[in-house]
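Progress against Task 2.4 (sequence-to-structure conversion) is shown through the following example record, which the project officer requested during the mid-term review.
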Amino acid sequence: MIASTAMKPITITYRIKLNENTTEVFDFELNGENFELISTTPESLPNWTELSFKQCSHCPLDEKEHSHCPMAVQLHQVIEKFHDTRSI
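Structure tokens generated for the chain above:
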């Protein structure tokens, strides 16, 4: 019998308190072995999240395998939560 050495996912939770009654919570789950972000991709994403849209020069991802930038997708989900929030 071979013992499993797979590490459990790691969850990082950010809580942002906007006022006395409103707190936004963001959970980011990371692969326990390689610390890559584990995420679900929303069905509808803006074009600025596409990997071909100003892809970083050092980005190792291939557009054929990854249609969207994982970081941009996560950022979009955070931005959407604050869409109706005033910054001042």
